[in-house]
Amino acid sequence: MESELEKIDILRSRFRMGYEDARKALAESSGDVVTALATLEKGRAGRKDLLALGAEIADEVRKIVSGGPIQRLRVKYGGKVLHESPVALTAAAAAEDAATTEWEGPLAS
After folding, report:
1. What residues contact 83, with CB distance under 8 A and at least 6 apart?
2. What share of the chain is helix, strand, coil (3-state, %, to 5)?
């Protein structure tokens, strides 16, 4: 017989979630770990995993680089534009940040 803490640890390790979220999922399934796992899996099915999202970003970067000069920088998720700014402004901000940040070297602690 597993204790509630052991059940919560099972959910946490499988879904990389916090104790509170795992505890809620377990409570909603009346303490049944298998039911909680199935419910969490169904909820996760609609979301992209991090690897798929990274591949999508890499594809977009390849399209941008092969498309010629870049005019604007757009951050998109799905079909929605989250942020957009001119590249000149983005480059100027990066240069300013680099000029004002003290570099301590790769082995600084």
Report:
1. 74, 75
2. 60, 10, 30
Q: What are the backbone dihedrals phi and psi of residue 54, each rounded to the nearest 5 degrees, phi first?
A: -65, -40
pTM above 0.70, yes or no: no
Tokens encoding 9? 């640890």
Q: Is residue 12 domain-resident?
A: yes
DSSP-H helix ranges across 16-106: 19-28, 33-44, 50-66, 87-100
Tell me: do 59 and 26 sit in the same domain.
no
Q: Per-residue pLDDT tens for 14-39?
A: 888 889 989 999 999 999 999 999 98
Question: Taking the alpha carbons of 8, 11, 17, 20 in that order, is the dihedral positive or negative?
Answer: negative
